[in-house]
Structure formats: C-alpha cells, structure tokens
Amino acid sequence: MxxxxxxxxxxxxxxxxxxxxxxxxxxxxxEGFDPERMRVQALSLVAKxxxxxxxxxxxxxxxxxxxxxxxFAAYARSRSAPPTGYRADADxxxxxLRERGxxxxxxxxPRWWSRFLP
Length: 118
Fold this sequence. Notes:
Residues 13-99 form the SCO6045-like C-terminal domain. This is SCO6045-like C-terminal domain-containing protein. Pfam families: SCO6045_C. InterPro entries: SCO6045-like_C. It is a single chain. The protein is mainly alpha-helical and 118 residues long. The chain has one domain (11-102). It has helices at 6-24, 35-56, 58-64, 68-77, 86-99. Helix 3 packs parallel to helix 5. The mean pLDDT is 91.
C-alpha cells in the first residue's frame, strides 16, 4: 500500500499531538479549539486518572486524605505526560506522596533466608 498523502498525514499527526499535549501536559490550546472546553476536558481526564489510581492504590488515596484532589492535581501538573498505564501512574503517585512526606515507606519484606535465623 502506498501512502498517497504523506504530508497531510504528517500535519494531522502533529495537530493531534498538539491536542493531546494540551489535554494531558498543560501545553497551549491549539488554534481553533475552545480554551474553556479544553480546560474542562483536561480536568475531566485528571479526575478519571485520580479515581482509577485511588482504586489501584487505596493506600496512596488514604495517605493524601482529604487533600487527594489537590495532591493528585499537583502531581499531574508536575509531569509532562502521564506514565504509560494506570499501575505505573498509581505507583508514581505513591512515590510522589512519599517524597513529600505524605506517605510512609513501604514495609520491607523479610529475606527468604531470614526464616532460618534464630
């Protein structure tokens, strides 16, 4: 199959990249898009991420407590793009909270050989 319109495809891919960057990375809203609608959609995407992260890592949600909305928004703003996958996002959020003293270090797992020690 030959690509009859490589330049059009390249321009479309660049435009789509600008829209995604505006939605998930706080980039400027591309020309032709309503800034208020883009802002609302970006907030909605962060809320969706937050709810999934809270289900995957309830310990992180509990550590953030009543500040979960603000903490997750700050975490999301600190990144140029979300990590790939919800599990990575949840673990990164927990690490972000830990760096700020909002979440304790995970308990250390005993070494397999420690069961043989007196």
